[in-house]
TrEMBL record:
Its cofactor is Mg(2+). It comes from Lautropia mirabilis ATCC 51599. One of its GO terms (biological process) is rRNA processing. The lineage of its organism: Bacteria, Pseudomonadati, Pseudomonadota, Betaproteobacteria, Burkholderiales. Pfam families: RNase_E_G, RNase_E_G_Thio. GO terms for molecular function: endonuclease activity; hydrolase activity; metal ion binding; RNA nuclease activity; rRNA binding; tRNA binding. Gene3D superfamilies: Nucleic acid-binding proteins, Ribonuclease E, catalytic domain. It is found in: Cytoplasm. GO terms for cellular component: cytoplasm. Belongs to the RNase E/G family. RNase G subfamily. Residues 49-125 form the S1 motif domain. Keywords: Cytoplasm, Endonuclease, Hydrolase, Magnesium, Metal-binding, Nuclease, RNA-binding, rRNA processing, rRNA-binding, tRNA processing, tRNA-binding. This is Ribonuclease G. CDD domains: S1_RNase_E. InterPro entries: NA-bd_OB-fold, RNA-bd_AU-1/RNase_E/G, RNase_E/G, RNase_E_G_thioredoxin-like, S1_domain.
Length: 508
């Protein structure tokens, strides 16, 4: 939510933190509705923000990229445009083969977690996030978040950070580097900004010391990748990235986690400490706020609208498509009015679902066709307005010539579906399976092929209950004809562990 909203018109916002030994789950609740969900599992903790002393594995001039060993299961990917040396050259891009070579040690940071079969995405443009600021050790630029819209406040913050950054700390000259002023810094005083600057520069100095220790006294060929800096655990990232002055409460269900968060608040953000409280009661925290039920609905392909319409979400490797349908909704003076109202309602639900499902990359929205240009523009503005509450960067390109809205949403980690689910072993991710009749005919064709090559005493079919039932009933005449043609007995056996598409033909 944008911090520039006043406390009077800001929606009621609560943050729930639920911790068990294997995982931490966080839910952002606005007006009693789940707006965002995130989790951090011990077995598969995200890598975004982590800094590594990596080793260049391969340099690919044709792709202007390189694969870097950072100690993960798969080598990570680095494109030439993510090398800070290239960014410092302005418009001129030096070929990657002139900057990197196999075996070269390289300080890198993860900007995208491994997704599917792809390794992590890296950059050498290091950034370290604090509460108020993001530190850019290699870039002297001072920038500011777009969500700080007041021009006077923007100018004040830019000027103050520029002055404070030039002072350095402990009487020393400035260590250089640049800063991005975060949205939460709106209204911050000099002492708070300076504390963040000093903290971030200390962290960077510690990273450099660790990198030098990793390289010192070791021959080039014997160096191993090493993690030098890891992002905060989810319970603390919540305080840094999600909580703000408009957050009414941060409810935690684990005393140990609460103590850790309280200590973090006392050190870095004392104004949030009073918002922390321990959940007490017989009902679990997420059960009380019906979070698990909302997550289940967010995993469904179909999302109902209050009007009776619905959205259909289809997620693929390349993009996500969202189809808007009126369903049984009939309202307004005519059909055009019904379509317009359904599309308007869909924009709010769509924006919430994108955030809740953490869908990223290319997104195509197929709104119901609208003949009125005014209606299309209103729906587009409604969508952009709804997306303003999303902290993840989104870009809406408007309606295409085919009447589709093309948009992008920055992707840094797996979607909710890919975090919580895996491909179905029956359909292998297709979403459909062959009918029992189709499988029956495949079995018959297979027996006919086998009979031409082999001379068994019998053919034994192992298949699911549905397939065997069909072979014994409606398809039994065809099976009998097949038995006569091959001149061998055909026996049927149910294999309870088999899915509908699975079968085996044993030559006995």
């Amino acid at each position: 939510m944008s911090p520039e909203c006043s406390m009077t018109d800001a929606p009621k916002e609560e943050i729930l933190v639920s911790t068990t030994s294997p995982e931490t789950r966080v839910a952002l609740i606005q007006q009693g509705v789940l707006k965002e969900f995130n989790l951090d599992r011990q077995a598969s903790r995200g890598q975004v923000g982590n800094i590594y002393a990596g080793i260049v594995n391969r340099v690919l001039p044709g792709m202007q990229s390189a694969f870097i060993d950072i100690g993960l299961e798969r080598s990570a990917f680095l494109h030439v445009t993510d090398l800070w040396q290239c960014r410092m050259d302005g418009h001129k891009t030096t070929p990657i083969e002139k900057l990197l070579y196999p075996g070269q040690p390289l300080l890198v940071q993860v900007i995208k977690d491994p997704i599917g079969s792809k390794g992590a995405r890296l950059t050498t443009q290091i950034s370290i996030a604090g509460r108020m600021l993001v530190y850019l050790p290699h870039d002297p630029h001072i920038g500011i978040a777009q969500r700080i819209t007041d021009e006077t406040e923007r100018n004040r913050l830019l000027e103050r950070v520029k002055v404070l950054a030039a002072q350095g700390h402990d009487g020393k000259a400035s260590e250089g580097g640049g800063f991005i002023i975060r949205t939460v810094a709106e209204g911050a005083e000099d002492e708070v900004l300076m504390a963040d600057i000093q903290y971030l520069r200390r962290r960077w100095a510690q990273i450099l010391e660790a990198a030098q220790a990793n390289a010192s006294g070791k021959p080039a060929g014997s160096r191993q990748p090493e993690q030098l800096y890891h992002e905060l655990p989810l319970s603390q990232r919540v305080l840094r990235d999600m909580a703000w002055a408009g957050t009414q409460s941060i409810i935690v269900d684990d005393p140990e986690t609460l103590a850790t968060m309280r200590t973090f608040c006392q050190t870095y953000m004392p104004n949030l400490e009073e918002k922390l409280r321990l959940h007490e009661g017989s009902r679990s925290l997420f059960d009380l706020y019906q979070v698990d039920e909302e997550v289940e609905r967010a995993l469904a392909r179909r999302v109902p609208l209050k009007s009776g319409g619905y959205l259909i979400f289809d997620q693929t490797e390349a993009l996500t498509t969202i189809d808007v349908n009126t369903g049984g909704y009939i309202s307004g003076r005519n059909f055009d009015d019904t379509v317009f109202r359904t599309n308007l309602e869909a924009t709010q639900t769509l924006a919430r679902q994108l955030q809740l499902r953490n869908l990223g990359g290319i997104i195509i929205v197929d709104f119901i066709d609208m003949h009125s240009a005014e209606h299309r523009e209103t729906v587009l503005q409604s969508l952009r307005s709804a997306l303003q509450q999303d902290r993840t960067k989104t870009t809406v390109n408007g309606f295409s010539s085919l009447g589709l809205v093309e948009m992008t949403r920055k992707r840094t980690r797996d979607s909710l579906e890919r975090m919580l689910c895996e491909p179905c072993t029956a359909c292998h991710g297709k979403g459909t399976i062959k009918t029992a009749r189709t499988v029956c005919y495949e079995i018959m064709r297979e027996i006919a092929r086998e009979a031409r090559q082999f001379d068994p005493k019998e053919f034994r079919i192992l298949a699911s209950q549905q397939v065997i039932d069909l072979l014994l009933d409606e398809e039994s005449p065809h099976l009998a004809i097949l038995g006569e043609n091959v001149g061998k007995p055909i026996t049927l056996h149910v294999e309870p562990a088999y899915a509908q598409e699975d079968y085996d033909i044993i030559l006995a």
